[in-house]
Design brief:
The protein is an alpha+beta fold. The chain is built from 8 helices and 7 strands; from the N terminus they run βββααααααβαβββα. The strands form 3 sheets. Strands 5-6-7 form a 3-stranded antiparallel sheet, with no helix packed on it. The chain has a two-stranded antiparallel sheet with strand order 1-4.
């Protein structure tokens, strides 16, 4: 962003006075002050993430080098998000509504059933947010690129040499070749071969690719 002279702007939606939430399985609409809701939600999120008593720092001490502490990763790698939620279930004994709100917030982040979402994936995301929900919120929701994310992507593309961007080109298969390269086939039977591939296919589309 510094390279292209872009700037940040505060998102209006992140600094509203009130927020509308659906409760009781979406049957009731409730409007609550954000000054009341956010501190409670952020506190629960902090506790959910604090699995080691150090807010995850013993597991991801260097967030940009996530595999630094292998033993800690092996210790927690089996945990799902639901497993972790069950571990702190006592926090919701008298507050089922806040549990439902936390589940909704976590599910939004994972875009998946919590029982099928890895806790370490969440913790890595959390560590990149400075081990604090309010800081994570600032980074992911409160501030946005004034010129827009598409403008940043376009500026990066314009800065590249010999790079082709293909849109509306569905991929049907990705395979390793015998010489350890990657072979990609598209729906129109185009083939691309490379030394490596970065795959960011959304989970709801992953089943369409062999």
């Amino acid at each position: 962003m510094t390279r292209y002279g872009f700037s940040l702007v505060e998102s209006e939606g992140a600094v509203v006075d009130h927020i509308s939430i659906l409760i009781d399985n979406g049957t009731k609409l409730k409007i609550v002050p954000t000054t009341d809701l956010y501190p409670k939600l952020f506190d629960l999120m902090n506790k959910f993430s604090d699995i080691d008593g150090e807010r995850g720092r013993t597991i991801f001490p260097l967030p940009h080098a996530p595999l630094t502490v292998h033993e800690a990763i092996r210790t927690y790698d089996h945990l799902s998000m639901q497993d972790r939620l069950d571990q702190i279930s006592s926090l919701f004994t008298d507050n089922a509504e806040m549990r439902a709100i936390l589940v909704a917030y976590l599910s939004m982040n994972t875009q998946c059933d919590l029982a099928k979402s890895g806790f370490l994936d969440h913790l890595y995301f959390w560590a990149l947010g400075d081990y604090d929900t309010s800081r994570t919120w600032d980074k992911t929701s409160r501030y946005k690129i004034r010129q827009g994310t598409s403008a940043l992507a376009q500026a990066m593309l314009d800065d590249c040499q010999g790079v082709n961007l293909l849109l509306s080109t569905p991929v049907t298969s990705i395979h390793r070749t015998d010489d350890k390269r990657v072979k990609i086939q598209t729906q129109s039977d185009q083939f691309f071969v490379a030394h490596s591939a970065i795959i960011t296919i959304p989970l709801n589309a992953l089943h369409t690719v062999a």
